[in-house]
Amino acid sequence: xxxxxxxxxxxxxxxxxxxxxxxxxxxxxxxxxxxxxxxxxxxxxxxxxxxxxxxxxxxxxxxxxxxxxxxxxxxxxxxxxxxxxxxxxxxxxxxxxxxxxxxxxxxxxxxxxxxxxxxxxxxxxxxxxxxxxxxxxxxxxxxxxxxxxxxxxxxxxxxxxxxxxxxxxxxxxxxxxxxxxxxxxxxxxxxxxxxxxxxxxxxxxxxxxxxxxxxxxxxxxxxxxxxxxxxxxxxxxx
Length: 238
Prior knowledge:
Blueprint lengths: L1 E5 L3 H10 L4 E5 L14 E2 L11 H6 L3 E3 L2 E3 L2 H14 L3 E3 L2 E9 L2 E8 L7 E4 L1 E4 L21 E2 L5 E10 H4 L7 E4 L4 E6 L13 E8 L7 H15 L1
Parallel strand pairs: 1-2, 1-10, 2-6, 10-11
Antiparallel strand pairs: 3-5, 4-5, 7-8, 8-9, 12-14, 12-15, 13-14
Helix pairs in contact: 1-3, 1-5
């Protein structure tokens, strides 16, 4: 079966990992690179769970550091390694690609594409299309996919809320107020994630900051939580 996943999210990468042995999988992403910008806490609760998806050498790149709330890590490298591994197994990733239309003839989807990558096709056919990105996801220049006239299925999401995240020096983070997630990483940086307003400013400033809609329950904001949601989807819907 030909399966197209729209959005290069970590859910898409993990789902492709589990589908690729029996299906031909393509991931379509608006951004130039999978995993950027980072829009999720770098957190792993059960470190052994990584063994099913990446090598020991790859795990070393994550700069894992143990915390009370789990292992802090470089989330961008989690996605980079997952993307590299599924590509080696035959999954195709179309970056810088926008869907102009999504129609259906009989039981087959037809996607019209626009891409800055010259070697990519202008049309795709698929037996199944799954939207992995949250609704109202925009790419560079506020571009977004047009999934009309035949809206494909949406990967299920949990109750969500607006989160704010920031990266600071671990030394500065020692003076930070209490946040929902406080994750030291192995590179001398700390990720802070919170839902309520916070007026604190670190002495040397925030190195990165973001606002993003994520699951309301902080217990779900981890590699483990994503794996659980993907495996539930595979069991129920594939």
